[in-house]
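To: structure desk
From: M.T.
Subject: fold request, one chain
Message: Could you run this one when you get a chance? Sequence is below, nothing fancy, just the single chain.
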Amino acid sequence: MRTILSILMLFCTMILSAQEIQENILENKTYLERMAYFKANPLTNGQIIFLGNSLTQGGKWNEYFPNQKPVNRGIAGDNTLGMLNRLNEIIIAKPKKVFLMAGINDISLSRSNEKIMIGIKSIIYQIETGSPYTKIYVQSLLPINNNKNVYQRMLNKEWQIEQLNKELKAFCEKENITFINIYPAFLSEDRTLDARYTTDGLHLNDNGYTVWVDQIRKYVEE
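Reply: Done. Structure tokens follow.
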């Protein structure tokens, strides 16, 4: 269990990014629409929740796992700061499990891995403190494929994704948190996101989601 002091120390650092939250997330149309949808469709206690960005939002989790009926709490364009802003809804519901994927949109905003890790740690510590019986699963970031030249802000960011995944793995091992490394399953021979699994070099097609589901099935169903 993490101490309240640890959380407060992390949030003191996050205050430095308060302006980023306002400019990039809280006034975003998609973010606001999804937040309104969440308010109209509140969580109930003990559910399995997928928390993340557009990759998470694009998944049909309750169809992939009809017996567990996971709830989709992904928002396209969201980053660690936006997830922190909306985390209270999840904590109050005391979920059985939370599957977290975060960081790719922070990278697109040229945030450092140090700052991204602070955000992810803050998300985890808040959940652990507010809902101590929730099992947290941290999923790795996925690779990208810049051959399609769709996302200019992600050019030459492959190294940062790989490094962030290493840092996430090390943190989870240290803190006894389950880390699910789905990154290798999506790699092509040239170590980019396999074109068979993507629509645009970043987002997944149906084949991509099939791979993702296969990688996490035992954790969802356990």
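Reply (cont.): The chain has eleven helices and five strands. Let me know if you need anything else for the meeting.
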